[in-house]
Design brief:
2 copies of one chain form a homodimer.
Chain A: H1 8-26, E1 31-32, H2 34-41, H3 45-53, E2 65-66, H4 67-78, E3 84-89, H5 93-100, E4 109-116, E5 125-126, E6 129-133, H6 137-143, E7 148-151, H7 155-167, E8 172-175, E9 188-191, H8 194-202
Helix pairs in contact in A: 1-4, 2-3
Chain A binds a DNA duplex (24 and 24 nucleotides) through helix 3.
Chain lengths: 206, 206
DNA sequence: TAGATTGTTAATCGATTAACAATC
DNA sequence: TAGATTGTTAATCGATTAACAATC
């Protein structure tokens, strides 16, 4: 079976599956099973099979899944069988780390434009790029058909930056600023904040 | 009411509530309601009230919640009404950004030890700290009673680093390496990987 | 073949929501 | 007071799991 409203929580697990598969593939492994994958990820094998069954039949009874095939399928489903252009806003410590991060390549993304509001930074080179004035963002991302943005700007201006992104046609935002963004329907936001992650664990400490 | 096995998904929302409250407080606001908070976060007001009801009664009928009081309560519940010492392993781009990040203070955390495996880095200053040899980690974190670690080391060695952390008594790990860690029962891991976040959104793009 | 593992169904489990009495 | 909002209950909704026929 396939289609008809896949739960978002299922979509959220697919990148995790894909990452685990890539690790296995890198180690030279060719076949895996829902049981093995579940073991590695702390997820039940039934859940993995159920999740995958939303999209089709990718395994073989008695054998399991050919890793390369399942990777291909997951990449296709997640639409990362291509290279998405990404805009990065805020070239501070986090922004610089993101530019230098080698993990985007081959996983579906490339930073194609970097922005900052600081006149001292605008015009400076960063990696292969030149830092552009954030005021020009809507125009630039629209021209380059950029649908994805990463916001690493200070919290104070993050909402303004998000507004500029939306104005330029961005539909997906990864927000490093520790604030909740208000965006129109149809624009997705993911948050990443080390403190929030840590605070989620302290509850369980003594 | 209180206690008796709070669902982890509820715990996961508390830091988000706390962050939103801090933002309101910073803007000079003194009172809020479950409705307003839910509006800001894209969560139903009923869910917020239900979540809070696991821990006690923090509001007032007809009025809502006094923000400073709810902040205090959430900080107490999450155990971030203190300052947790944190170890950081891997002083590359991400590690450096974390050391310079000002957002830990006042939110419950302080990096008290920085480690790297590179002999050229060991002994170098980073912020207020000196980079230490990762081989000494178990000893050092045990001495300083560090229960929380952030791993920003390369994927290849992240599991080894996690093992050292566990050996030193660490019970909570925030992992920036794009791999799933195997840890013993009782040790919590949170993952943060920009690519995984982005891949979760591309599914919805055209 | 015998053993293993899939894909799927039905049952269970848990989380979210709607509604409202209590009350500030 | 009148209006508003909490805390909580019961109902709904959705996700996870157990189990197994199908079959490699």
């Amino acid at each position: 079976m396939a289609s008809t409203e896949i739960p978002d929580i299922v979509i959220g697990r697919l990148p995790v599956y894909l990452r685990a598969l890539s690790l296995m593939a890198a180690a030279g492994q060719e076949i895996t099973s829902s049981h093995e994958l579940g073991e590695k990820l702390g997820i039940s094998s039934a859940q993995i099979r159920k999740d995958l069954s939303h999209f089709g039949e990718f395994g073989k009874q008695g054998t399991g899944y050919r890793i390369s095939h399942l990777q291909d399928q997951l990449r296709r489903i997640l639409k990362v069988d291509r290279e998405w252009p990404v805009a990065l806003i805020g070239i501070g410590d986090v922004g610089q780390a993101l530019v230098r991060y080698g993990g985007f390549r081959n996983r579906g993304f490339r930073i194609v434009a970097a922005f900052d509001a600081d006149p001292a930074k605008v015009g400076q080179p960063i990696g292969d790029l030149t830092i552009q004035d954030v005021a020009t963002l809507p125009e630039v991302v629209r021209e380059q058909n950029v649908q994805i943005a990463m916001i690493a700007a200070p919290a104070k201006v993050a909402q303004d930056v998000a507004d500029l992104c939306v104005k330029g046609g961005v539909r997906a935002i990864l927000n490093y600023a520790p604030i909740n963004l208000a965006v129109p329907e149809g624009v997705r936001v993911q948050y990443t904040d080390p403190v929030t992650h840590l605070q989620r664990m302290t509850y369980y400490l003594v």
